[in-house]
Structures are given as structure tokens and as C-alpha cells.
Design a protein that fits this description.
Blueprint lengths: L1 H14 L16 E12 L4 E5 L8 E4 L4 E5 L17 E10 L2 E8 L7 E4 L3 E6 L2 E7 L7 E10 L2
Antiparallel strand pairs: 1-2, 1-3, 1-10, 3-4, 4-5, 5-6, 6-7, 8-9, 9-10
Length: 158
């Protein structure tokens, strides 16, 4: 019986793979490189209006690294897909933290030397309808506005 248990244990150990999922390590779904896709505006009456980002804005990239670093590229609005990246944006990198299942905090660090300012971004809700799509919900805080909230959709490109 001891030999059977030893053999069974050996088979089980050999059959195991070394992937992160098999070791119980969960990879956060936000990790990767994201490209803007579209914006959906939801009105107080329930109607929706969808708009794709401009060709130039589609060049933007938002990169969430596994070690908690964040960086982005910034392009202006416009229909020219060959537009040039904006330079001079003070906040292009920083760190990200997951507070709970749908809340992430991004702390952007000022890029100017001797500038200690940190810009904190906390979207109202971040969800992942599938592994290739990130949806960020921003609630409209203006009570006089007919807009209830916005959904910003991003496509994973890496």
C-alpha cells in the first residue's frame, strides 16, 4: 500500500504544471497595454450615445505593469492617425493599486524635476467584460446635467 501511495503521489507531482494559475497566483486583469476604443454616454432617461475615439487618440496607450508601475502616451484629438505624440504633459507615469474588485487607484507623478506633486485618479468603477476589454465608469457629478455617467472602453493590445 505504501508503494501505491508513493507512486500516486509521484504521478500527481509530475502531472502538475508550473503556470501561475496552477500555483494559485492570480494575475490582475488590468495588467497589460490598453488602447482607447469608444465612449458611451448614458443619460438620466436611460438613452445612450456611443462615440469612438478619434484616429489620433487611438494612438494612446495605457500600460499597467505587474509590479504596480503605470505609464501612458498622450495624443491629441483629431482624425489624423499619423499625428504626433503630445509632449509636455506633466503626468505620464506613476503607480497603480487595486483597492477592491472594481476600484483601482492610479497615482501619477509629476515629470518635472523637483516637482513633488502627485495626481490621484480613482475611476468610479473598473470592470472587465472579457479578457480583451476594460470598461471604466465615470459618474457625472453635475446635478443639472442630463448625463448620468460615462463608460470608457479600452481594448487590450498586449
Amino acid at each position: 500500500m505504501k508503494k501505491v501511495l508513493t507512486l500516486l503521489f509521484a504521478v500527481l507531482v509530475c502531472a502538475c504544471t508550473d503556470s501561475e494559475a496552477d500555483r494559485g497566483i492570480l494575475v490582475d486583469p488590468i495588467i497589460g497595454v490598453w488602447q482607447p476604443d469608444r465612449i458611451v454616454t448614458v443619460l438620466n432617461n436611460g438613452n445612450e450615445d456611443s462615440k469612438i475615439f478619434t484616429a489620433c487618440e487611438m494612438n494612446n496607450r495605457y500600460t499597467f505593469h505587474a509590479d504596480g508601475r503605470f505609464n501612458m502616451t498622450d495624443y491629441p484629438e483629431g482624425d489624423d492617425a499619423n499625428c504626433e505624440e503630445l509632449v509636455g504633459n506633466l503626468y505620464l507615469s506613476g503607480t497603480w493599486t487595486r483597492w477592491n474588485e472594481t476600484v483601482y487607484v492610479i497615482e501619477l507623478v509629476c515629470a518635472i524635476p523637483n516637482c513633488d506633486e502627485i495626481e490621484e485618479e480613482v475611476p468610479d468603477e473598473v470592470t472587465f467584460p472579457n479578457e480583451m476589454t476594460m470598461r471604466i465608469k465615470e459618474i457625472d457629478e453635475d446635478p443639472d446635467d442630463e448625463i448620468d455617467y460615462f463608460y470608457y472602453y479600452y481594448k487590450r493590445i498586449q
